[in-house]
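Sequence in, structure out. First:
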Amino acid sequence: MRIVSLVPHATELLFALGLGDQVVGVTHECDYPDEAQELPQVTHDTLEPGLSPAEIDAAVRARTESGESIYELDDELVGELEPDLIVTQALCHVCAVSVDEVRALARTLPGPPRVISLDPTTYGETVGDVRTIAQATNSKDAALDLIARTARRADVVRLAVRGAPRPRVAALEWLDPVFVAGHWTPQLVEMAGGEDVLGFAGEPSRQATWEEVAAAQPEVVIVMPCGYDAARALVEAEDFAGRLRELGADQVVAVNASAYFSRPGPRLVDGLELLAHILHPDRVPQAPAEALAVEL
């Protein structure tokens, strides 16, 4: 089977299921695992480089309100790759090429290739996506193994934090304007032994105000700008140190959202372990990645 992946979390899932040798095309943002970066890239970003967070937000709003995507698809290259399966998503207009555009293209190709859209809104639905891809690619055994391993790791975290005090957590997905993380993130916070005081499980991330965040009285603030790694998140947090200081939290940390929170793929369980370490380091002393402390 020849597979084109049009969203990073699908690429990660395909490789996690041992299907990497069948992936023939990916997006320009598919950076994990390393092998994915060697494959033909069938998309590119239409936003100008070097924009500030506020400028990125404005540009994204302008393009989505006009019905335009911030990504462009190389239709010719997709055709040359002769895919049997195209995996995309419709959950977030900011995160991928329009699913309608993908389906329209697929209808013009020989076959035509099957199009699957992965659109989880909860942690449980991300597990369901594993089964969806497994059914389409005849990889049931690998899927069962991946699901079992992920469940065991999640259970270890739940047991470790059971009975511990639950700190009040604000998970911020963007800082200018400020956005509160939604979808699966509030569930991860709860599973990690915290209380998400602003987000709603299964609901989209939403724009808030700094005053609203302060009024929620968070004890821990997790800075997780969508699509940014930990180093870039730390820079953003330092740029907004004044605003973050006004929240009165005991702890502010920057994390790798791109790897562990923004993408609803196999590494969400790493994000769970990282959150548990941040909130309860005495009970979860090991973490899959570093949480960068923000000096306020």
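Second:
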Amino acid sequence: MKIGLVTPYIYPLPGGVNAHVGFLHQHLRERGHDVRIISSTHGLQRSSEGDIIRIGRGFSVPSNGSVGTLTVSPRFLSQCRDVLEREQFDLLHFHEPFVPFLSLVLLRESTSVNIATFHAYNGWSPSYEFGRRMLGSYARRLHGRIAVSVAARYFIDKYFPGDYKVIPNGVEVERFAGARPIERWRDGTPNLLFLGRLEDRKGLLHLLKAFRLLRREGRNCRLLVVGHGPQEREARRYLATRRLTGVEMLGRVGEEEKPRWFATADIYVSPATGRESFGIVLLEAMAAGTPIVCSDIHGYKGVVRRGEQALLVPPRDPHALAAAIGELLDDPAKRARMGASGRQRSHEFGWARVTERVDDYYGFVIRRLAAQGQLPPGFHADVPPRPAGSPVSLAAD
């Protein structure tokens, strides 16, 4: 099939959705599909490069406690129509389809099979709450819907009820499993690792408070903070005013360096406060064989199993966080068991397996539309056969 993967964020800038789209593109091509990525630009990238098609200009805006993208163009409609006419996609796969405006315009103009993946989780969304009547007509143009977790499905189903197939994010198992530790930090002092964007919802300040408690108890450990973001100045001020030592603020690292940081860590800590739909960093830690201490939040519970790969603690509770970290510091055998369990579980989330599930879902939706005589006029490929051994009817999760 000819497939267009639509991301409302500027590809390939770092981010969970863009990473998901990039790996899906790679593995769908390996499965024999002709795949393009449709994105926007910050103005520096060329309008088209390889399999990437750019429409409009993206602007960063605050969203869900982080940073999102708003895409605009004075020629949006004509540009979208030109791309769709030229490329003749059989299927468009929208990631966060209701982020304005690239996905919305493409969805409205599409004559292809339309699939959407919903990545986000939040307790309440004012934009969905007040915009769902207007967005309802767009939702009805979706032939299939995927959520990356039960939490993400629960969130989106509140505003746009329907059948959602839960297919998780993936991880490059082999790349993380084979990473070598960074020798500089393997000096006998146990390493705690925080890796993520330095913003309020990632919970770094709660981890710093927990680390201060550990140091007060006389624990010999080190905290490696990898990442950047708007909370960096506040974090450095906290360290300076408390004269807290043993914390290394290491800044941003490239994607190619991440596996080595997980391999260097004795414990990975994710003190997120909420609004996480999944927890890709937990998968990466598991693939590297690193035991985890993380917040007990909806998006994380579908990734790790309590007591097997991770110790889960209440969010925003530095004392509970310190106690869990201390428990693992005191028990190297338990750390080893949890790390081994994580490695084993991470194989369930390998990208080849995740992409196979997405591809199977494409086929299910297309066969359903064909059986109902409702295949859209833009679909020109052969109807995919039912996978061998699959039931006659596949129900959405």
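Remark: The CA atoms of residues 221 and 382 lie 59 Å apart.
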